[in-house]
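Obj: model holo form, ligand = adenosine-5'-triphosphate.
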Amino acid sequence: MKPKILIVDDEPDICKALAFLLKREGYSTTTANSGEDAIEKLKAEGFDIVITDIKMGKVDGMAVLEKAKELHPDIAVIMMTAFASIESAVDAMKRGATDYIVKPFHNEEIKITVKKAIEQKKLITENIALKQQISQRMACKDFITNSESMLKILETLEKVIPTKSNIMILGESGTGKGLMAEMIHCNSPRRDKSFISINCSAIPEGLLESELFGYKKGAFTGAVSDKLGLIPLAHEGTLFLDEIGDMPVNLQAKLLKVLETGEVYPLGDTKPKIADVRIISATNVDIENKIREGKFREDLYWRLNVIEIKIPPLRERKDDIEVIAKHFINKFSSEHKKIIKGIDKEAMSLLIAYSWPGNVRELGNVIERAVVLADSDYITVENLPDKLKMLKMVEHTAQPSTLKTYLSDYEKNLIIRLYNAHNRNKEQTAIALGIDLATLYRKLKKYGIEE
Ligand SMILES: Nc1ncnc2c1ncn2[C@@H]1O[C@H](COP(=O)(O)OP(=O)(O)OP(=O)(O)O)[C@@H](O)[C@H]1O
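Output (holo structure tokens):
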């Protein structure tokens, strides 16, 4: 294909002369007689090179340079300037222009400068592609565990990781589903290709479709250029579909078709793109229930759920708390430039006693906060949030003397446990306890759990 050049000058004769010369050299040329006109043209289509005069009306060559780079980061821009204002050309080079030519210029000079710019553009494009590749090859993060249930899961995974089988990861929010997906990709033969992750519940329905499948220029208003979808972008790599349970049903049908044919049709395109992708999906909702309600296609479920991994909540794998807490202490100590050697016994016993409704994510937050607050080498109970400190009160009331104190201690402990388990949400705690909200308020105050 011929390289495309946009020539911008407010003197139509210069535009015409340059277009004539460069066409003869085999380039495809377009002209614009103002900065505004140039920016419109840059928005509408892609160019390899822009040759622009610096001094123009309201929108000058500097503005064209800035916009061209913003719209097409790999574009080469050549500035034209009169000898008297050569300083501004130097300034333009600092802002990303590829070269400049001083008016009046010779034909030969133009030809050489354009040829050089084409070469340079090729290098810039290769560089951008390389940078993308490097950033795609992510560092393998460890999935830390010491619990028997998780070790068994990892053992099963070892057999599955080298294959192409789709995997569905189930588990409460914050249990590590995203981390596990990264770990699977990172250890699989697809590790050198893209790991593309998208949260199906975080993106509006219309946008999710164009993000996943891509579109052809002109497919809808605003589609000013072709866009490659995330599915074809993940070709030969891994696509992580988080919160798959929230994917709209019409998109589920389209995704199923992709899985069956290995082809993706971008919106408005009749030519498919190939997509050999391994899909890892994750959800924290009861997907079988969604199938019963007709909100999730059963045929898609079976395609995605070839291997099912259930990550237990942290409260059901207490053996993990200490090792993960230590991992977070190291991580956040170095991030916050503090030297924390560990956590004292009493504080650790509270971490183990707590129910962690937000799972590992919540443990991470608690440890980060503690690392920031710690004044000594070790994290102490003082550095933990109230919801954990309260558990200490439960322990200290363990030896009641009379039936009355026994019952009230029992009541207090139960309230504290459920209050924590519901993330200090009073409405939910009252429902769980089977009492009304006013009674709960009274009891929280009576037992000094809350002012
Ligand atoms: N076993 C683990 N070892 C080390 N870090 C972990 C572990 N499990 C989870 N994490 C960390 O906890 C945080 C939450 O994990 P992640 O985002 O993977 O959870 P998730 O289940 O995908 O959550 P959500 O359903 O809300 O998307 C991340 O920072 C992750 O790196």
